[in-house]
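seq/struct pair 1
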Amino acid sequence: MQTTLSRPIDFHGLGLHSGKPVNMRIRPAPADTGVVFVRTDVTSKNNKIPARIENVSSTVLCTRVANEDGVSVGTIEHVLAGLTACGIHNAYIDVDQDESPALDGSALPLVQQILEVGLQELPQPLRTIKVLKPVRVESPDGVSATLEPSIRTEMSFAIDFPEPIGSQQQSLDLSNGAIVRNLAFCRTFVLKPMIEELQKNGFGLGGNEANVIIADVENKQFICQLRERDEACRHKMLDAVGDLTLAGHPIIGKFTGLRSGHRTTISLIRKLLADKTAHQMIVANEETAATLPGAGTKRHDIPNI
């Protein structure tokens, strides 16, 4: 069965890139709605933006979706990952800016509140996307992402950055509460030498030590305490979880990312959905539904950090 929230929940914080205060409310939605962003500050145009792959308008440093009237909202990947982590399939997300709030740089605050209020089951069946054959996108610099058949939703990821991040890799079965236990608390990160350049170009204006891991490349140290040794790699996995949500239905298959980011993941989803021999839309039976990401997730799955 599909799910939604049992009641609305509210958030407030700075936009990671805009630096502006953002109010966000996540509300219950009927079955087959999917996730829809609603720009409450827009009144003269269509202010509803479905979080679907066909609406992705930019992947520069974050994922942004826009509707046919050009109304957009960005930095949506953490919100989508938080919903997926808790097994939420339908929701309206009201925001009063063109970006969601950064909160602590992870999906943890979202997960905590969602699991606090609980889920509402909806009687309509849940459709999933089953990967039938490998699909891969790769750039000349060796960055790649692949989806291949699997009986569960799995993910492997590898990154390579200057120290103190270095080379990291992680593999996880994302079934049930695994995203909450292993990924949801992992924060976005930035290399200290990049901060000035990002802000000069209008990005990262709301970033600070409370919502971003800063990697001091010169001194090979982090300007904060890590929540996990490989938190950077796990955050990249969290981003991928959020971006994969844009397929519109849970994907049953294994995702492998090699130094990939938003652009690569979005390209991979588009390639998968364009190839009718590479995927099949199926109604999840009870056994399959019980193993999907977020299914059966409880508050005790949230780790102490």
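seq/struct pair 2
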Amino acid sequence: MPNQRDGATTLYDAIHRRRDVRGQFTGAPIPADALGRILAAAHAAPSVGLSQPWDFIRVTDDRTRRAFHAHVQHERAVFAATLTGERAERFAGIRIDGILAASMSLVVTYDPARGEPAVLGRHAIVDAGLYSVCLAIENLWLAATTEGLGVGWVSFYREPFVRELLAIPAGIRPVAWLCVGPVTHLETTPDLERHGWARRRPLADAVHAERWRGRDDQLPAGSRHG
């Protein structure tokens, strides 16, 4: 059995190795026991009021995936039409999905009615249930990384389309379409950073003490305007 320190090392390693995969899927089958473990990890996530408002839809049907892929490509074109100049050139080289290459898709949904009429802890923050679903997704993602699998979150879709495609009942939101499967490798640098679309912020820029640090707080002493 691994000791506690080994477990911590594995967790931190998975956090930093995790990538949003697009082009590295092999299409090989996912071992059933590994799939069971990553779904169990997702289902073990914390949730507001213990509502567990998530569900997971396994999608392997080729026609379904092709229909979704066509929809995603349409939405890509819609977004691309809003770009000009250097931004348009950079986006043209960015792959946005691995729908057809991945072994399967897992669609994670949110049921806001789960646990009603009184979801303990949600009365003041209506989105707390949605946050819970995102925690389940992160658990799934880290577990998949530990299993040597890749995950790609596809966000170029309209919720009504996915709801109809997968016969999701009204009122339940499809939060994430995840492409999942074995990969050749995980990139050391995120795709968007490699393509020059964005850069990760330094941790120091994201940490505040006691109050929100404004832009003036970062100026050298004596350079603030009175």
